[in-house]
């Protein structure tokens, strides 16, 4: 059994501890050194009745060097039962005393089925420090401190694997009424909400849905230069039974860090501890007070939702418009009724206001006003978002707890699901518009490992149905020469540019029966897709085109081809009739990517001006078709739509949906609170999981590649994942194009360093990379970016010599794979910290985006079930903010991701990236093979890339 110090070394040494860096990492430990006296107090039973308290500390055994710890579900648990608080100092020497049991068990912390009867939770119960500002019970006796020390030593003496974090839970046991009271006192003192419930049967479900969190230093153990502190706890603590669902988080921290964090310092002499210090140790951080300080009266009755059908069934033969009207009416009436019941119920329970109901009624009036107009679909769509907003407002204005809000959101979600289900009943599939198409694509979710193509949404369009974005762009008509078939005919007065119409038609028609109308296929060596259609019409279903293409060339039937066909068609039309100054105007430059300038443009229609993004591709040879094909094929609300693709002899131009400012820009002038961070994280994970379900990997997830806009009506944030240039599909062999160094996962960094050193063929190595895990890690980095407003290794990179900071960073991350975890700021606590650790852990224990969506931290924004993930359309974010205008107008050309070689130009918070294909072949000279050190005199890459940049610039100008 290793000494505590060895253990702490061991914690890091499985994958090597990073050296100490400014502001964060623990100093190196001295293996085998004698521990200093450990005077820390931890958790005690202030009543002195030792039968009441048992403290369990379970340390996560994540992937470790030894096989017994390779199962992440295994945890070591130390249990001190029957209050056997040892008093002898010699019991602290790493040996378990008789009254301490050590065993291994799964980490699940199951809920004990029979919960005890518990007294009601008092609304006055403070979370964190006592109201009078002084600790009420903090009289740790010497024995108790020794016990705490002993317990921690037990923890230290177990092989805990390589993860720095540990998980503990606190369980108070006992069954007398006195024990109950004492339990409350302990909970209060420790700043833990004691969740109680009169109803034993409900207890399990309450425990299941509630998350009670406390942030504070519950105790600290010093040992030489190192200390171990329990920084925060989150858990349901109940009297008498083991109900803890949430773990207490224990971190290893330097004393210095603890001081910086204003954590409680336990001095050698307990009597010297200032009461204020104790209080500080259990202070609740403000952002969590907001969420968790609302008293909750446990009851699950109100969550019982009657299973009455919400939707009226669709009449056979009813036209789409009529159906939507019927359903819209019935749908909202039902929602209003439901909400009325809920509000009444809530009113009974809490004396709440009827404000929400009134809002719903206003919404309903608004719908009925538009029921006969052409804007119905748009209104319905907006209204469904507004419903979410109402629920959000409900939760805010009425101060519901997180779990209250959750079930309210669930109700809305169920209603929406029923909406979708009823549309699809008995094959009567209704997709009235292109807009609906893309919205509903969400519900296809990321089910299972999709080996093949994205599911084509089935849409049964009836003759006369309109398609468009609210304003009809066209309607379904029989074709002239094939009367039984259908096509879309444009309405003359449609204000949209032709390329948008065509995209909508194409999408609206997908899923109808196969139909190809006059097409020609030709070879064009210039085309990025090899094959393109240069015929007149390519309106068709995906199946129709697939069939058609299969007949022509069975080897090339991929969705990419379909995408190419649509693109080329659009491109052709646009080329003929879409000119700057005539049809659209340039508004401003949004940024500059490696391909060229990205501009915001606007159509010049008198009737409706539509903004869109025009992305230049100045170097055709470097262009990757995935940039266009993937967004065309993957319909997801967090992916911007591609409107068109222009192919001129010199350049390509991609026309796509405007997605707001990028996240890096957004963070420059906006504070994000944790709820917003969660909202963005949930959306990001959702879209990444969706891509992965088609074996498509983005590979360049970062704040620069995320567009942010306010949600509908300005509430919440809506993101779009941008830049599919580095994306790989199952057909592609992975390369190095477009990777961003700062977000490269440790295992990828290891590969890249090997490539640098020329030790192995690049292709071999890259083929073995799990790109899904690479994306997951990059999501974690992006989440960190939101917390820190800077990319994850911003400071670290600045500490490297400028000319080789990228390579140094790759080397550093590959050597210290857990360095990323130490970049997690202190403000990130509890569930979000847990989520980040899951996202950024070593590759073997890293979760998938799909799994991450199920993380408790995101419960408010994600509904899980049947393997589908659905991000809430509008979040519970309390922010009403219009980020794009100010940020973009004031900043003009925004700082873009800087290439790896030009990190000297790195903007605050920006991320260096590869930008273009790196010539790794030439790196061999630049790094010492043995030491892995870069030769600082060599900066050929940098020079090449900069020259190339300049060339592109001058081309562009
Ligand atoms: N659809 C869009 N809506 C709004 N802004 C966009 C959009 N597409 C791109 N941008 C802006 O342009 C910037 C550069 O775009 P993008 O990353 O797609 O270019 P790129 O040439 O692929 O860049 P790189 O490969 O260097 O990352 C983005 O950071 C973003 O600010």
TrEMBL record:
Domain Protein kinase: 584-858
Binding site for ATP: 615
Renumbered residue ranges of the record's region Disordered: 1-47, 920-957
Coiled-coil regions listed: none
Keyword presence, Metal-binding: no
PANTHER family per UniProt: OVARIAN-SPECIFIC SERINE/THREONINE-PROTEIN KINASE LOK-RELATED (PTHR44167), SERINE_THREONINE-PROTEIN KINASE CHK2 (PTHR44167:SF24)
Name the record gives this protein: Uncharacterized protein LOC106156888
Source organism: Lingula anatina (Brachiopod)
